[in-house]
Amino acid sequence: MREDLLYFIWKHNKLPTDQLCTGKGETISIKATGTQNMLAGPDFFNAKLEIDGQLWAGNVEMHLKSSDWYVHHHETDENYDNVILHVVWEDDIAVFRKDGSQIPTLEMKQYVADQLLNGYRNLMNNSRTGFINCEKDLRNVDSFLVENWLHRLYFERLEHKSKLILELLKVSKNDWEAVLFMLLAKNFGSMVNGPYFLERARQLDFSIVRKTTNGPLQLEALLFGHFGLLNVSDCTDNHYLQLQKEYEYLVHKFGLKKSTSKPEFFGLRPLNFPTIRTSQLVNLYKGTHSVFSKLMGLNKLQEIYQAFEIYTGPYWEYHYTFGKVSKKRVKKLSKKFIDLVVINTLVPLRFCYARHLGKDWNEELVALVSQLGTEDNSIIKNFDKIGSRSQNALESQAKLELYTNYCAKNKCMQCTVGTQLLNRNT
C-alpha cells in the first residue's frame, strides 16, 4: 500500500460518498476534493466538505496511518493549521491541531471496494519481463492520451535538465556562452568522460578560452592540457611537445591549475577517444567568440548540422593518441553525435534562454526535437519490445523520463497511463 493510491482514490471520487463517517461517527459529505499539491504542505488544497452538517473549506492531508502526522511533525508546522480532514488508510491514533482541537479523520480502508484494490494489486504486479508494471496493457491505452502524456513528460525532462543549466549560470555569473561551453564539454566527453570534462570545464575561466580562440595552437594546448591529455610519459612526438610547451606558457600566464587526473580511453571506440573529441571541440571554437549567439539563431535542423560540420585538426587525421601513427581517416562529427548534442545541450539551453527572455519557444522546440531520430539505449529497446515504439527523439526522451521518474519508482498512480488503466478496470 502506498499513499499515492490514497491520492488516486480521493482525486477520482472512488469512495461511496453517501456512507462516509469520521472515526467519531460524524457524517462526511465531499463537496469538492480540492487541488492536489505536488510540493511541500498538505496534499489537497481548497477542499470543501460537510462534516456532521457543518460546511468546511480548507486542506486535506493523507497518510497511511494517523500516527504519521506526528512522525512527520505536522503538529508543529503552521502549514497544516488549516487541515479540515485527515484521510488515512488506518486510523491508529487521534490527531490534534496546535490549539488542541481534534482533526476529523476518515479511515479509507473500510470504504474501498475490493475490485479497486485487486485492480491496483494487478497493476503493480503485472510485469512479465521485470521492465514496467503496465507492459501487458500499455499498447491498449488510448493513443491520443499517451501522446499528450509523452509531451508533458518531455517538458518535465527539460525542467530537470534546466537544473544543471541554472546551476552553471550561477557559477558563470550568467554567462550563457560559458554555460554552452561547459555543456558541450560534457557532451563531447560522452557518457564515460562527460562528468570529468564538465567538472574541468567548470574550473576553467571561460574568458581564457575567449582569449585563445584566435590562436589555434593556443586553444588546442589550453583544452588538451586542461582536460589532462598532456600527461603522457616519455612521449617524444613533435606535436605533443609543442602543445605541452604552449600549455606551460598558458599555465604561467593565466595561473591555471593543472589537472592531476586524466580522462578514460578504456572501453571507448577510437572515434570517441577524448583526444579526438577534444580536437573537434577546439575546431568548433577556433576563430569565433560567439558560438552561443550563432547556435541560438539557427532555427532549422539542417542549419544546425552545418554548424556542427566539425573535423579534427590535421594531426588527428593520422592519430588517435599522441605519438602512435594510424591510417589516415578524416574524423568529423557524425549525425548521430550531433543529434545527441541537440537533444542534451541545444534544446535544453534554448528552453532556459527563452524563459530568460520571457518568450515561449515550446512549439519550435517540439518541432525541432521531433525531427530527430529515436535514441538507442536499453530503456528504449525495452519499450520497443513491449510494443511501444518511439517515432522520434521527443518520444524517446519522454520515455526515459517516464521510466526513470515513474516506472522505476512504482509511481503508477502519478502516471496518466497507470491511472487510466486503474480507472478502466474499476
Write the layout of secondary structure elements.
Layout lengths: L2 H9 L16 E5 L2 E2 L7 E8 L2 E12 L2 H4 L11 E8 L14 E3 L6 H11 L18 H29 L4 H13 L1 H13 L3 H7 L3 H11 L11 H17 L19 H12 L5 H6 L4 H7 L11 E3 L2 E2 L9 H23 L4 H9 L7 H8 L7 H13 L10 H9 L2
Parallel strand pairs: 4-5, 5-6
Antiparallel strand pairs: 1-3, 2-3, 3-4, 7-8
Helix pairs in contact: 4-13, 4-16, 5-6, 5-13, 8-9, 8-10, 13-14
Written account of the structure:
The chain has 426 residues and is α/β, with parallel strands linked by helices. The chain has helices at residues 3-11, 68-71, 114-124, 143-171, 176-188, 190-202, 206-212, 216-226, 238-254, 274-285, 291-296, 301-307, 335-357, 362-370, 378-385, 393-405, 416-424; strands at 28-32, 35-36, 44-51, 54-65, 83-90, 105-107, 319-321, 324-325. Strand 3 (44-51) and strand 4 form a beta hairpin. This is DUF2851 family protein. Pfam families: DUF2851.
Distance between the termini: 17 Å
Strand content: 5-15%
Low-pLDDT runs = none
Oligomer type = single chain
Pfam family, one: DUF2851
InterPro entries: DUF2851
Protein name: DUF2851 family protein
List keywords for this structure.
426 residues; single chain; 47% helix; alpha/beta; two-stranded antiparallel ribbon; 6-stranded mixed beta sheet; elongated; 8 strands
